[in-house]
Amino acid sequence: MQDVFITAAGGFLPGEPVSNDDMEEYLGFIHGKASRCGKMILRQNGIQSRHYALDKSGTPNYSNAEMASNAVQQTLNRSRISKANIDFLSAATTQGDMLVPGFASLVHHISGLPPMEIASFQSVCASGMMALKNAFLNVRAGEKRAAISCASEFSSRWFRPGFYEEYLDNSGQTDLSSDAEFLRWTLSDGAGALLLESDLKDDAELSLKLDWIDLCSYADRFDPCMYAGSSSNDIRQVQAWSSYSSPSEASAQGAIMLKQDFDLLYRMFPTWVGHYLSLVENGKITPDEVDYFLPHYSAHSLKQRMIKLLQQTGAMIPENKWFNNLAQIGNTGSASIYLMIEELFRSQSLSDGDRILCFVPESGQCIVSFMQLTAVRRERSK
Amino acid sequence: MTSKVQVQSVLRRLVTVWADFEGKLNKVDIIDRINRGKISIGEYRDILLNHRQQVVEGSRWIARAASSIEQPYLEQRATFLRHAATEQLDYKMLDEDFVNCGGDIGHISNGQKNIGSEALHAWMFHKASQKNPFDLLGAMFIIEGLGKNFAGNWVKKLEQNLNLKPNQTQFYRYHAEHDDDHIEKLENIMASGILNIAGLADQIVKTAKVTGRLYLLQLEEIGNV
Questions:
Q1: Among A234, A275, A312, whose Cβ lies nearest the Cβ of B11?
Q2: Is the ipTM here above 0.90?
Q3: Which InterPro entries does the record associate with it (chain B) (predicted)?
Q4: How many CB atoms lie within 10 A of CB A277?
Q5: Which of A98, A123, A326, B44 is most exposed, with minimal Cβ within 10 Å?
């Protein structure tokens, strides 16, 4: 088994930061009207700024794969390895640009990487961790020497008025329900990439040893919670968008919109906490030894719900060790953890031996994942 | 005194047991249908009728447990006795809800335990009759956790889907609102020295698991008397 190090990180956030007040200028006004619950949702999720790959007319400036590729490019620019030596590409997203082929194929094409093994991962926030685990294991097993793992989201295109209006007209409703509004005011665009290598270069100043990734699905007990492609998330009533008579009929029936079931989301919390506590109890995670805790959170208020229980169980990581850039750059789903690692890498605040714990829960159909990294920092040789 | 670390470890294990229990609970047919808004008023009455037969015995097994607690654990015995007293009349709310949903008081007062409740009841009394049965804290963690973590959601779903009024959901509402600090109480009693009893930590966790399993059986067997 090889030790695996993250030796470079890159990110890509499209366009200028968009403030809370300007969001609808980019996403568009549904039936020409301003949303009534946007402000409330923003108070809940605590996000103050984000980026969109759309311009104000709703036209894309980049594709999802282009954003991923830009993040890959920045990672390579920051590394001491040439493109020719990369031998694995893992790519994750919630929804690629094309239904077919896989996302990694598009990213591979645009990034100009040489022929190599690739892997595409489609899930929600945890897809980035799935991609990373595959890259990690390939390098760890000695199968590959240098792997790129990337994750990218182009959520905003789902939020344009045309994705809702047909359904609203057809069902005689004037306003969007909160299960559809929430994500519209929460998710935004961006990409991140990490380079994983088994050789730690002598002249590398900083790298992150990837200790382990733990990922578990609890879909055995949950229906879909964050979903698109069916009007209902009741697993017994799911009708796939592609089984309607046409895509426009699916849209008119509400089977295209991206939605979040809040009752289910709240029911996932004990499962996530239980999983975390079992890792603490089994000694895999030692909260007192964590120097940086990077949680991927989509809602500020949800955080408050967990703190007391974590304190009572001796599993709380003090808040001054939390590192999270969601409020500043938005919730970029699967790319979010990459962009947190990228910022931490860039911040120059890491010391040799610092332990970093990453936490990525996915509400899609309930997944929880953790990753532990240990900083390896060397003095620059004169 | 018991160290804080020991208490935290038991709590971590209990929360993990809870997570597993909750996953299974949501898959029990009647609970799944409450969550999906697919139950009838008659089925809600059946839940009240079946649940009442367990609730009415609740303070009995806590009192039995208290009487099995010996010196030097007299403070803890007092806590158990006080707890038994507060649970004593809980069943009355269930009776009222049942009647307000169109049920007959004689029917619920003279109801029988379903076969799952029989198993749960027998287990509780068996445990409560052992010397210093502090492992029952694991059972309380599960049963009171239901109030804190579930009752509120059930009330919301039931009211939405059956157009129920507050006087038809008093019992679940009361527990949603009042079982809130159950972990704190558990923390305090576990920190009082009982965890020095050899093997108790493991026993608390195991009793929580068995109680959870039998609780599911009670819900799976609604109406089967």
A1: A312
A2: no
A3: Haem_Oase-like_multi-hlx
A4: 26
A5: A98
Question: How many contacts does A have with B, using Cβ atoms within 8 A?
Answer: 62
Query: Which residue in the block uniquely carries the two structure tokens 């690692």?
Result: A341
Looking at the structure of chain B, the number of domains it has is: 1
**Angstrom distances, CA of residue A79 to CA of A2, A63, A89:** 20, 25, 16
Q: Largest Cα–Cα distance in chain A?
A: 71
Return the DSSP state at A10: E
Q: How far apart are CA A70 and CA A60, in angstroms?
A: 15
> How confident is chain B (225 residues) per 10-residue block, as mean pLDDT?
86 95 94 91 96 91 96 95 87 95 95 96 97 97 88 89 93 84 86 94 98 97 95
One-letter amino acid for residue B51 of the chain? H
* Interface mutation target, options A261, A264, A275, A281, chain B, most CBs of B under 10 Å: A281
**Among A97-101, A156-160, A237-241, where is mean pLDDT lowest?**
A237-241
Domain of B80 in residue numbering reads as: 4-220
Indicate if the alpha-carbon torsion angle A95, A98, A104, A109 is positive or negative.
Answer: negative
CA distance A285 to A281: 8
- A355: domain CATH number is 3.40.47.10
Which domain range does residue A133 map to? 1-16+51-154+189-219+270-382
How many CA atoms are closer than 13 Å to the CA of A136, on its beta-carbon side? 18
Report yes or no: A308 and B181 within 8 Å, Cβ to Cβ.
no
Question: Greatest CA separation found in chain B?
Answer: 52
pLDDT at A319: 87
Q: How many CB atoms lie within 10 A of CB B72?
A: 7
Residue A11 lies in a domain: yes
The domain spanning residue B17 has which CATH number?
1.20.910.10
